Amino acid sequence: MTSLLSGVMLGLSLIIAIGAQNIWVLSQSMAGANRWAAAGVCIFCDVCLISVGVFSASHINEAIPALVPFLKWGGILMLGYLALQAFSRALKGSSGLSAADTNRQTWQKTALTAFAISLLNPHVYLDTVILLGNIGAMQDSPFWFATGACVASTLWFSCLSFFAPKLKVILSSPARWRLFDLSIGLILCAIAIQLFFIEQ
C-alpha cells in the first residue's frame, strides 16, 4: 500500500506540472476535438514509459543519454509547430469556440499528434523513465509503485478531458478564445526555449 500511494503521489506531482502535453490536451478537450482519443494516447504512453522505467531502470540509464539530443530537437520542432498553429488561430480567428471547426480532423490524426507531442519531449522520458523508474526500482514493491504512477496518469488525463469542456462557456467569445490561443502559443514557445537551453 505504501508503494502504491508513493506511486500515485509522485506520479501526480510530475504529470500535473504544466507542460506541452497538458496544454495541448486541455485545448483539444475544451474544443471537444476527439478529447478521449488524445487522453487515451497520453495515458497509454505514460503507462508504457513508467513500466519500462520501473522494470528496466539500470539498462535505461545507459541508453537514454545517447538519445537526449535527438529527443531534444524533435521536441523543439514539435513545440514550434504547435505554437505556430496556435498563433495562426489567434490571428485569423473571427468567432468563438466552434465545434464544427475543431472536429474536422479525424480521431486518428488527433491520436498521431498526441503520440508525437508525448514522445518527442525529453522531459517525458526524464520524468517517467529515469525519475519514476529509478525511484520505483528502489521500492519494496516496484509493481505497486508502477501501478500507482499509472493510476495517477489515468486520473489526471481523464479529469482533464472530462472537465475541460465546461470551460467553453468562458471562452465562447471571439476575443477570449483568441487570447487563449495566443497564451497557448506563448507558453509552447517558452517551453521550446527552455528545452533549447537544456544541456545535452
From TrEMBL:
It is a multi-pass membrane protein. InterPro entries: LeuE-type. Signal peptide: none annotated. The chain crosses the membrane at residues 6-24, 36-58, 70-91, 112-137, 143-165, 177-198. It is found in: Cell membrane. GO terms for molecular function: amino acid transmembrane transporter activity. Keywords: Cell membrane, Membrane, Transmembrane, Transmembrane helix. Its main location: membrane. GO terms for cellular component: plasma membrane. This is Transporter. It comes from Agaribacter marinus.
